[in-house]
Write a structure and sequence with these properties.
- The protein has one domain.
- The two termini are 30 Å apart.
- The protein has 212 residues and is an alpha+beta fold.
- It has nine helices and eleven strands.
């Protein structure tokens, strides 16, 4: 997941295009604003990076096993055997989520500064690295850009087993929640579970109607 994000950033940086923000979206994300409103909002926030950030050691200690162990990957998934190892020296681990809106300057720093290399090598064999790699890099290097602890996503987290949470699939009963705040996107949606909520959002926000 992290490598896919880095590949995407590098690809965009090599294009001869005048873009300002890198926004990652999944196939189950949906905009909560029109393209014009999103563009206007980001224009007003040039230089700001939006990403959830929390001190992993103090605020999410239950996730420390993700980075304190070396995970071995096989063709069938993880081997099931983990190896304890020392974390990166003089580095504070951070965590948040995989969703982000990063400036071009931020992407250039991550891809070209060279400071991220040791993090790439270490996090290659960690668990769920896409929720902590970028946060840890940006908080432990010379990056000077503005980081805002907000990914601009509307998400309802619900229990899913022992201390695990997953994003709720939105239905029409969640319309009121989605209209609150200034989030630009929401997740997650599934036509097979409820397609009416997407129709309602398109009408309310005057979004382009999806094509059949």
């Amino acid at each position: 997941m992290v490598q896919a994000e880095l590949n995407g950033m590098n690809y965009l940086l090599k294009l001869n295009l005048n873009w300002d923000f890198f926004i990652n979206l999944s196939g189950q994300d949906y905009p909560l604003k029109s393209q014009k409103i999103i563009r206007d909002y980001l224009t007003e926030n040039i230089g700001n990076n939006f990403i959830k950030i929390a001190n992993q050691l103090t605020e999410r200690p239950e996730t420390m096993n993700r980075i304190e162990n070396y995970f071995v990957e096989t063709n069938d998934g993880f081997s099931g055997i983990t190896f304890r190892r020392a974390y990166l020296k003089d580095v504070i681990p951070y965590i948040g989520g995989q969703w982000m809106i990063l400036t071009r300057e931020c992407c250039e720093f991550i891809c070209n500064s060279g400071e991220a290399k040791k993090f790439e090598e270490y996090y290659l064999n960690t668990l769920i690295a896409d929720e902590s790699f970028f946060q840890t890099v940006l908080m432990n290097t010379s990056f000077k850009g503005v980081l805002i602890n907000d990914d601009k996503r509307a998400i309802i987290w619900i229990p899913d087993g022992d201390i695990k949470l997953r994003p709720k699939t939105f239905t029409s009963e969640d319309m009121k929640f989605l209209l609150l705040g200034d989030n630009l996107f929401a997740r997650k949606f599934d036509d097979n579970i409820d397609s009416h909520i997407i129709d309602d959002l398109e009408i309310y926000f005057n979004l382009p109607l999806k094509k059949n």
